[in-house]
Each structure stands twice: as C-alpha cells, then as structure tokens.
Amino acid sequence: MRCLLVVNPVAGAGRAVAAAPGVAAVLRAAGWETTSACSADMEDAKRLAAEAASESRAVIVLGGDGTASQVAPMVSEHGGVLGVLPGGRGNDFVRALGWPTDPLRAVRRMVCAEPLATDLGWAGEHPFLTVASVGFDSKVIEEAARLPKWLGRGVYAAAALRCLKSWRHVDFHLTLDGAPSQVSGWTVAASNGGVYGGGMRIAPDAGLDDGLLDVVTLSKSSRAHMLLGMPKVFFGAHLSDPIFSLQRAQQLQIRSEAPLVLYAAGEPAGELPARIWVQAGAVRVLR
After folding, report:
1. d(CA 261, CA 271)
2. Do 2-113 and 128-280 agree at the fold level?
3. Contact 245, 216 (CB under 8 A)
4. 8-state DSSP, 196
5. How many CA atoms lie within 13 A of 41 on its CB side?
6. 263, 141 Cβ separation under 8 angstroms
7. Is 174 in a helix, a strand, or coil?
8. Pairwise pLDDT comparison (246 vs 150), residue with the higher score
9. Are strands 2-7 and 58-63 parallel, antiparallel or unpaired?
10. Count of other CB atoms within 10 angstroms of residue 141
11. Which of 2, 72, 157, 165 is packed most tightly, with the most Cβ within 10 A?
C-alpha cells in the first residue's frame, strides 16, 4: 500500500513528532510505500490529505482526534482510506477502535487492519469521528486548554474538578429525529465513536458503522453525586445511574437559554443552537 503519514507537529506537546520516525519505519517494514509530512496547520493537513487521497494513497494521521476528524472529509471526498494513530492528548478514536494508545503498538495493529466504511459525525459544518458535546463538557474543555500539557490525559479530570464548584445547571431543548424533549442538567453528548475526554466511555456501545448517534444526557444532580459517579464513565459503567439517559438518532437539534459553545472532537464548533447529524458510512477507515 502507498501512504502519506501526516504528522501534527504540535499534537501531544510534540509526542507525534517524536513518534513519527518509528511509525514510518514500521509502515515500511510492513511493505508500505511511505512518505511523511508535517502539517503547518489544520488547513495544510486537509490539503495534504486531499492530495494524497486523490492519488490513491492512504492517509495516515499521527496527531489528535481533532486533526483526524478534520482530515476525514477530505479522504471521503476522494474515495480514499484513512488511518488514525495516537499522537495527541486524548486519542479517543484510537481507544474506540480498541487499539493501544502507544503509537508504535497501534501502527502494528493498523498494518493488519481492513478499510471499513465508518460513520462521520457533523456538528454544523464541523466533522467529528468521536463525540460532540456541550454543557459542563464545554467548560471542562475550555479549562483544560489552560492547564499544563504535562498532565497528559489527566488534564480533563483535573479540569472537571476545577469546574465543578462554579457550575450551574442548564435547560437544554432537544429534538431527536423530529421528537422534542427537554433536559435540565450537566451535559448533552452526541457520540459516534463513544469515547471522549481522554478515555471516558460516555456511550460504551456506540457503533462506528450503525448510521446513528448515541445521544447521552446527564440531568440534574448534586455536585457530590457527579463527583462520585465520574470515575464510572471511564469504564462505561455509568448508564445504570438514572441521571444518565441514552437515545439513538440520526439527527439532533439542540438549543439552550444559556450561551454555550459546542465542541466536536475537542474543537470548538460554534455556539448553540446547533444541528448535529451523522453521515453514514462516509469514510473508509483502517480498523
């Protein structure tokens, strides 16, 4: 197979750059004709991916979930193949695949994988392979950006603890495939891959190729209840708690009275109101 290894030089505080030579060596040892390129920014990563896919080269992203999600539509448009390797802080799409979060171990899995049709989520015009969420999650992501990068995946847990004290519950107005509902509470998360926040399995049974979003809402509770239940999300054991609700839909429309920013794969995707939907089987992903 011919491939382009797209490396995000700022992902994971340089983790992707450090891993790139070893990853390329594994690809070549497996017989893949490999070229590597560091992207200057997100637009450059998208351009590199489009060019490679148009030349029938697989696009292998070594970076974070945001980079992989932004590149996916470019690969889809040209009928290409996408591979995703862990090089960021969260690496949640790789976790959803069930792969190791060590880049060298993950690439050894990837060279044996098959390109399979995979759904792509959209939050407005922002694509995501993992999760789009809003509410308490929005505040956590914003706070995590202010914390030191050496915290790694623990940055999200640290940010959540900081945000708990000041949080005020929000009234969310939802429409799932035309059916209206309302929830007052913490968060609404629309899941494609089902994993976000550095390993939180918010929708543990989410399918990457079922053409549906797993929409999880977290309704009102005390801060103590939230704090005690938070660790369960990392194991996908939280859905037995009645403050969590799970529904599946192809499309979600969401608004709130409070001004909130929606995040998709950890990247800002605009303020509410918003439309979130799934493009079934949009991109072939090595998995």
Report:
1. 4
2. no
3. yes
4. B
5. 1
6. yes
7. strand
8. 246
9. parallel
10. 22
11. 72
67 three-state secondary structure? helix
CA distances from 75 to 120, 139, 176, 283 (A): 12, 31, 29, 7
Relative to beta strand 213-219, strand 261-264 is unpaired
Any idea what the Cα angle at residue 199 is, between residues 198 and 203, rounded to 5°? 125
Task: Give kind and range of the element (H or E) at residue 134.
Answer: strand 131-135
Name the residue with tokens 């918003």.
274
User: In which element (H, E) is residue 248 found?
Assistant: strand 244-249
pLDDT over 90 at 61, yes or no: yes
Number of neighbouring beta carbons within 10 Å of residue 123: 27
CATH number belonging to the domain at 2-113, selected among 3.40.50.10330, 3.40.50.1980, 3.40.50.150, 2.102.10.10:
3.40.50.10330
Q: Which two tokens stand for residue 43?
A: 């637009």
Q: What's residue 254's pLDDT?
A: 98
Pairing type for strands 115-123 and 267-271 reads: unpaired
At residue 153 the predicted structure's pLDDT band, cuts being 50, 70 and 90, is low
Return the axis-axis angle of helices 136-144 and 155-164, rounded to nearest 10°: 120
Instruction: Judge if the upstream peptide bond of residue 103 is cis by omega within 30 degrees of 0.
Output: no
Domain boundaries, the chain: 2-113, 128-280
Averaged over 127-156, what is the pLDDT?
87
Q: At what angle do helices 103-110 and 15-29 cross, to 10 degrees?
A: 30
What type of residue is 117? A
